[in-house]
Write a structure and sequence with these properties.
Blueprint lengths: L5 E4 L3 H11 L1 H17 L4 H18 L1 H14 L3 H8 L1 H15 L2 H5 L8 E6 L10 E9 L6 E6 L7 E6 L7 E4 L3 E7 L14 H9 L4 H9 L7 E7 L3 E8 L2 E5 L5 E4 L12 H4 L3 H13 L14 H8 L23 E10 L4 E6 L8 E4 L1
Parallel strand pairs: 1-4
Antiparallel strand pairs: 2-3, 2-11, 3-12, 4-5, 5-6, 6-7, 7-8, 8-9, 9-10, 12-13, 13-14
This protein binds zinc ion (ZN).
Length: about 375
């Protein structure tokens, strides 16, 4: 589809937010509209969700003043209401309770509505022992509502009081989703849903945690933001370090399951591998059951580990694997299912391969089979 626009953000949190908001004003407004329409389509009470987001303004201000200041800057720079900007930043934390409320209402109108979208994704990490160049890779295909692809960009944070960061984000969202910092810490994220999601009202939002991961200088401090406090909903977070460490955290509201690489390769999609929680996504999006396993196999075939005779994974092999079309359109390289109404269209919106040693992202917007990867170094 396209290259990422890269926006360098400097100065105070408020100044960074204003810069972000001014540059992507239309995209921020478009994202608010996309989510409102999509959630309304699912029978969610969008006004109640917005009220919940309004209450989160104060919560984020108290818990993470810098994050809140950057959100305020985005609102100021874009002219989009602060509550709507906050709704983007806490969308996971407000949508799960809203879905829960809808389900519990059990009215016929609600049950006739569409199911919530599966926040798809297939992510990976590869350790130096399995790569030809001795580097550590982290990355993913990020699958989500198709219109969001147009609002993605790479934010580059240049800060005196915290690490420099290069991360992909949606216009309006402060915390990056997939990225790397100057200390070689990298992150990839996937949607996960457990039966316990959305039961508790106010806990630190995931996007705030993702920013904190990339604010870390040390690996233990990068893991801490996901682990240290309970969560409103679930998410899968893969955190890697340039010196050859990878840990996958399957986070449910009150439990985190950890997964380590096998033969130097780690992959994850959108279902829990632990039996300790009720995993929900595979009921609506069964492709999660083969996407991660298939990606793992495609990468492992490149190593000596399975006797295939090749000598390791390189970034070209990873890019090939991310273009895999088995099960299309519900493939690793995910495409729009034309049998669905347009409002339900989803696809791979971004594909990223991060070389943690070089602090370099190879990436593109849209399904990766459609174009070339471009290089963005921190
Ligand atoms: Zn494709």
């Amino acid at each position: 589809m396209a290259e990422f626009e890269r926006l360098v953000l400097t100065g105070t949190p408020r100044e960074r937010g204003i810069e972000h908001g001014e540059r992507f004003a239309e995209a921020v407004a478009a994202n608010v509209e996309t989510y409102r329409e999509r959630f309304a389509h699912e029978g969610v009470d969008v006004d109640a969700m917005r009220e919940h987001a309004a209450e989160y303004v104060e919560y984020v201000e108290r818990e993470s003043p810098d994050y809140a200041a950057e959100m305020r800057g985005i609102a100021e720079g874009s002219g989009v209401d602060l509550v709507d900007v906050t709704m983007l930043n806490v969308r996971w934390e407000v949508i799960y309770p809203a879905w829960k409320a809808r389900t519990e209402a059990e009215n016929e109108a609600a049950t006739a509505e569409a199911e919530p979208p599966v926040d798809g994704c297939t992510s990976f990490g590869v350790m130096p022992c399995a790569t030809t160049d001795g580097t550590t890779y982290v990355g993913q295909n990020w699958d989500w509502l198709a219109p969001i692809a147009d609002t993605l960009f790479l934010m580059e944070l240049r800060r005196d009081d915290a690490p420099d960061v290069l991360a992909m984000t949606e216009a309006g969202i402060v915390g990056g989703k997939v990225g790397v910092n100057e200390h070689g810490i990298g992150i990839a994220v996937n949607g996960l849903i457990s039966g316990d999601d959305g039961s508790e009202g106010f806990r630190k939002p995931y996007h705030v945690r993702f920013r904190e991961v990339l604010d870390a200088e040390r690996y233990d401090d990068a893991l801490r933001p996901i682990l240290e406090t309970d969560r409103v909903c679930s998410a899968n977070v893969l955190v890697g370090h340039a010196d050859g460490e990878l840990i996958d955290l399957e986070a449910a509201p009150e439990l985190v399951n950890t997964i380590y690489p096998e033969e130097g390769v780690l992959t994850h999609s959108n279902h829990f591998e632990t039996d300790a929680v009720e995993s929900v996504n595979e009921r609506r999006g069964p492709s999660t059951l083969y996407r991660a396993e298939r990606l793992r196999r495609l990468l492992a075939e490149e190593t000596d580990g399975d006797g295939a005779g090749a000598d390791g994974v390189d970034s070209a092999a990873i890019r090939d694997a991310l273009r895999d079309h088995f099960g299309r359109p519900a493939s690793i390289c995910s495409h729009v299912d034309e049998s669905l109404p347009e409002i339900e269209h989803g696809q791979t919106n971004a594909s990223l391969v991060i070389d943690l040693q070089e602090r370099r992202i190879l990436g593109q917007r849209g399904p990766p089979c459609a174009g070339e990867y471009h290089e963005y170094a921190l």
